[in-house]
Fold:
Amino acid sequence: MGHLVTLGEHILNNQKRVGHSTGELSHLLSCIRLAAKVVNSEINKAGLVDEIMGQYGKTNVQGEAQQKLDVYANRKFIDAFEAYSQVCGVASEEEDSFVAFESDECMQGKYVLLIDPLDGSSNIDVNVSIGTIFSIYKRKSLRGTKANLDDFLQRGTEIVAAGYIVYGSSTMMVLSVGNGVHGFTFDPSVGVFFLSHEDIRIPKSGKIYSVNEGNYPFFSDGIKEYLKYCKEHDKETGRPLTSRYIGSLVSDFHRNMIKGGIYLYPETTLAPQGKLRLLYECKPIAFLAEQAGGKATDGENRILEIEPKALHQRTPLIVGSSDMVDKLHSFL
Ligand code: AHM
Ligand code: MG
Structure:
């Protein structure tokens, strides 16, 4: 049997590759790895433990019901980041504002981290895959000071590292530090993430389209035409395409990245900015898509180039195989 590479080794190898690295990013990634294991074990118990199932009785800043596991994951990640002192601040989809850590060690931190601790959380109660999405940026403010809003409102082109954890039929961490995308599958018997998917490339084209088609009446004419095109019978171009929609961005994106496909959450007449959050969901997913050879846009602009104006800003998202994204654009 060949040598299995662990996520820990991969992080260290990457640190060596960068040469001048101080190890801060490696420590930060190790912290995410650890917190992910803790959250994973809690998620796996979700069906058993009554107290943490169901709604927490609160809504988050966007007015959506927060599930208890959201709250749990949010706390676990933020506490871990504070304890590891590798970031000066965290912005989370579950918090109204960003958290600027105040200890001297944290304020020395070079990075800020943005996180959606449990995405797709409406799926928790029905045992469907959910995910954690994160991205890391170098701070803009001076080291030794408290993090400020500008540290978090950076373009996606400034991302240093991004990834997600998908809590699916197995738990996986998919990560990019800017040199391709690599996937690590968690082996619960030894508590270790092993490299299982080296250098993931999104096929240039695929058969899958993923969209909440219940929103059809509220889509623009261009999107409606595109969806008709997906369903037309045409032998030569292999249509109709296959429709797959879980309602968990991480899982929908992950499947499409492996198999080839397109995910879209366009603007609607009811939600003119779409549903998904630019900072917590779309930019990290766009970074991974591009690192794997795919594309991500809001229908007009490259997601990574959008200048964020607010922490909880929303944007339409079209992401996946590059030829499929181009094809959709030809309808807009
Ligand atoms: P959440 O952050 O409240 O969990 O919502 C985000 C999720 C995405 O994972 C998913 O792609 C999308 O919302 C599904 O939305 P809809 O139910 O409108 O199809
Ligand atoms: Mg979310």
Residues 93, 116, 119, 281 surround magnesium ion (ligand 2) (CB under 6 Å). The mean pLDDT is 92. The chain has two domains: 7-197, 208-329.
